[in-house]
Structure prediction request, 116 residues.
Amino acid sequence: MLASFSGLFLLILILASFRLTHLLVYDDITAPLRRLFVTTTIVTLDHGQQAVQHEVAPKGLKRWLGMLFTCHWCMGVWSSLILTLLWLFVPYAIWLLVILAVAGAAAIIETIMLRL
Prediction:
């Protein structure tokens, strides 16, 4: 299986991991899942600007998961690991990776287009 690892697959894995990470950490559709581990509030700062404040559980597995769901760097490592293991051990998992990769590429293109 590793013999078939290529630059194209690496790109697919990168984009799929990016999309899965963003889905878990930021997207509204996964907010109910995040709420199991994180309390999020919007606070107004002294100069009127608003900021998002995350509060995670004080200890245990809920704390660890809360920290994970509030850190895109941390979630990115775990997303990459999970997707790589899926590719290695689950038949047809490549289709999930391709779908996430296409969605990730579309998100990047949309972000670029909005800034132009």
User: Anything to note?
Assistant: The CA atoms of residues 13 and 84 lie 7 Å apart.
